[in-house]
Write a structure and sequence with these properties.
By secondary structure, chain A is an all-alpha fold. Chain A contains nine helices and no strands. The chains are: A mainly alpha (207), B alpha+beta (190). At the A-B interface, helix 2, helix 4, helix 6, helix 7 and helix 8 of A face helix 1, helix 2, helix 3, strand 1 and helix 4 of B.
C-alpha cells in the first residue's frame, strides 16, 4: 500500500484588513490605499473612490453626450480602467488621482467614439467590476414648488431660463433669438436662478 | 493646470453651456475632478436645470417665448397645438388629450417697441392680469404665448382677451388685441 501523499494545507483567501474610511479621507489617500493594498483588493477604498468619482465622470460625460445612459456607461468604463491602473501600480502620482481620472475620461471619450466594441471587451473581461456604482446623494426637488416658483419669476427671467435649459443654449444663442446681448442674457439668467433658489429655499452648495 | 479655488456658479453654468474658451474649460474640468464640493455644486445646478426643462415639457409653466424654440420642440417630437392670429383676431381654441403644449403666435407691429407688456382679461368677469416686459424679437413681428396646459385642461368654456401694450417710459399704448374662445376638447372633437 502506498504511503498517503502529503496533504498541502489549503490556501485560503483572506482579504487584507484595512482601516475604516473616514469621510474626511482625501481622494489621494484612497488612491494610495488601493495602490498599497495591491495585489489584494481594498474593497472599501475602491467602493468609496468609485462613489466619489462616479458623479464627477458622469457630469463630464453628460456635458458632451447629453444622454444619461451613455454618460453612466462611460462613467463605469472609466472607473473600471482607473481601478485596473491603480491595482497594477500604473498610477505614479496617487496624490493627483483627480487629474489621472480626468485623463482616462478624456481618452475614453475619444476611444468610445472610435470603437464601441471596446466596451463590450471590457464588460467581458471585468464582469466583477460591473455592479452599479453608488452615486453621490442628490437633492430631491419639490416639483410643485418648482412650478410655483417658476411662475413667480418675472417673465423675462422665466423665458430666458426656459430658452437656456430646454436644450442647453448659450447666452449668445439665446440673445440672438431675443435680439438682446449675450451679457444681458447672462445677467437675467443669473438673477433668475438666484430668485428660483430663494423661492425654493435651495441654498447654493457653498463654494 | 488646475484652478486653485472654487469657481462661482456663473462660471460653472458657463462651463456647462460651452461658453468658456478651451483653456478655461480644461482648467475648470481639472478643478472639478479634484474638488468634491465644486462637483456637487455643478451637480446641483444640472439637477435644477433638468427640473426646469421637465417643468417646461410638462406644460405646467406659462411663458412668452420665441417661435424658434417652439420649432425645436416640435423637431424633438412633441405635439404642439398652434394658433396664429393677426391684430384684432379671434380664434376658437382647445387642448386635445395628446397635446403636449399649446401656443399662440400673435403677429403685431413690434418695430421700435422697446418694452412689451401683455394684459390678459377674462371675459365677461373682466378680471385682468398683466405680465410685464415679455421676451420678444422685434425683427420677427411676432409674440409667442405659451399657456399653462394643465390649467387649460381644467377649463370649460371660457373667453380671454389679450392685449399687447408697448411701454415707453411713463406712456403706453395698446398695439394689438386678440380674443381666445376656449372650449373643452370633448365638446369640439369631430
Amino acid at each position: 500500500m502506498n504511503a498517503p501523499l502529503p496533504v498541502e494545507p489549503r490556501k485560503s483567501y483572506s482579504p487584507r484588513v484595512c482601516p475604516p474610511i473616514s469621510p474626511e479621507e482625501e481622494d489621494a489617500a484612497l488612491a494610495r490605499r488601493i495602490v498599497g493594498c495591491a495585489p489584494e483588493r481594498d474593497v472599501a477604498a475602491e467602493a468609496e473612490l468609485c462613489r466619489r468619482f462616479a458623479s464627477r465622470i458622469r457630469l463630464f460625460a453628460l456635458k458632451r453626450l447629453r444622454s444619461d445612459a451613455a454618460a453612466a456607461d462611460l462613467a463605469q468604463d472609466v472607473l473600471m480602467l482607473t481601478l485596473q491602473k491603480l491595482r497594477s501600480g500604473e498610477v505614479r502620482e496617487p496624490e493627483r488621482i483627480g487629474a489621472f481620472v480626468l485623463g482616462i475620461a478624456r481618452q475614453t471619450m475619444i476611444d468610445s467614439s472610435r470603437n464601441s466594441a471596446r466596451r463590450e471587451r471590457l464588460l467581458e473581461t471585468f464582469p466583477a467590476d460591473l455592479s452599479p456604482v453608488e452615486d453621490e446623494p442628490r437633492e430631491i426637488l419639490d416639483t410643485d414648488r418648482l412650478h410655483h416658483c417658476m411662475q413667480a419669476l418675472v417673465e423675462r427671467e422665466r423665458a430666458v431660463l426656459l430658452m437656456t435649459f430646454y436644450d442647453d443654449r448659450s447666452a449668445e444663442a439665446v440673445g440672438a433669438e431675443l435680439g438682446i446681448s449675450a451679457a444681458n442674457v447672462r445677467v437675467i439668467r443669473h438673477r433668475g436662478i438666484r430668485h428660483l433658489r430663494d423661492c425654493m429655499n435651495l441654498a447654493e452648495v457653498a463654494s | 493646470m488646475s484652478t486653485p479655488s472654487c469657481a462661482p456658479e456663473a462660471t460653472l453654468l458657463a462651463y456647462w453651456l460651452g461658453e468658456l474658451d478651451e483653456r478655461a474649460e480644461s482648467a475648470l474640468e481639472e478643478h472639478l475632478f479634484g474638488c468634491a464640493r465644486c462637483s456637487a455644486r455643478l451637480q446641483s445646478l444640472v439637477q435644477l436645470k433638468t427640473a426646469i426643462r421637465r417643468a417646461f415639457l410638462s406644460g405646467d409653466v406659462s411663458s412668452v417665448l420665441t417661435e424658434k424654440l417652439i420649432e425645436r420642440v416640435q423637431e424633438a417630437g412633441l405635439r404642439v397645438r398652434e394658433y396664429r392670429m393677426g391684430p384684432g383676431g379671434s380664434v376658437q381654441c382647445t387642448v386635445a388629450p395628446d397635446d403636449d403644449l399649446v401656443v399662440a403666435h400673435l403677429r403685431a407691429p413690434l418695430t421700435d417697441v422697446a418694452r412689451l407688456d401683455v394684459i390678459f382679461e377674462d371675459l365677461p368677469a373682466g378680471t385682468r392680469h398683466r405680465t410685464e416686459d415679455v421676451a420678444f424679437d422685434p425683427a420677427t413681428g411676432q409674440v409667442t404665448l405659451l399657456p399653462n396646459v394643465t390649467q387649460l385642461r381644467k377649463l370649460r368654456f371660457a373667453t380671454q382677451r389679450v392685449e399687447l401694450v408697448a411701454v415707453e417710459g411713463a406712456s403706453e399704448r395698446v398695439i394689438a388685441d386678440y380674443t381666445f374662445n376656449h372650449s373643452p376638447y370633448d365638446s369640439v372633437r369631430p
